[in-house]
Predict the 3D structure of the following.
Amino acid sequence: MTMEVYWMLECLRDLDRGGRSIESWPTVPGVESWISGAPISDDVRGPIQLFWDPEDEQGPSQPMYKAGIPMMTRALYEALVEAGVDNLQTVPVEVSSRSTQERTRDYVAFNVVGIVRAVDWKSSPPRYPGTPELIAAGLNGVTLLPGAAHGLLLFRLAENVGAIVIHNRVRMAIEGRFAGLTFVRPEDWAG
């Protein structure tokens, strides 16, 4: 039996090139949490109105933003779906500039439906002992339990819901296509 390989999906700003960030994240009626794994209501419609932070408006935009309201480019979303990911809900987003007429609808807010308890605590001691082992456990390297994901291609880690985990098949389908996406081996990941 072949063991499934998973990666942690990140999209970090290149400090040398800079990069755009979002000014602030509004509350969206009908969405209690974007990272709990719970489905959001079908009544949530877009576009969600966002603004580039005027202090970070000159650099390149990222294909994915995980903070606040998680969002990704439509192209990344389509590539994930093409690779077989079927547990994403999306809402259209419009990002505007406060200093120019620029406006883009190239992004969608996304919700990963489902979270998976997958941390092998015997091999993944918490970075901060005493922190809860669910939702926001601080981890400095993680070992994933074999078979815990039951074949899911993309999921949030129940022990640290800020973490997005993708199957190697998805990584191979999207790697190199979206500047800024980073794939980190779980044992090298910190969060």
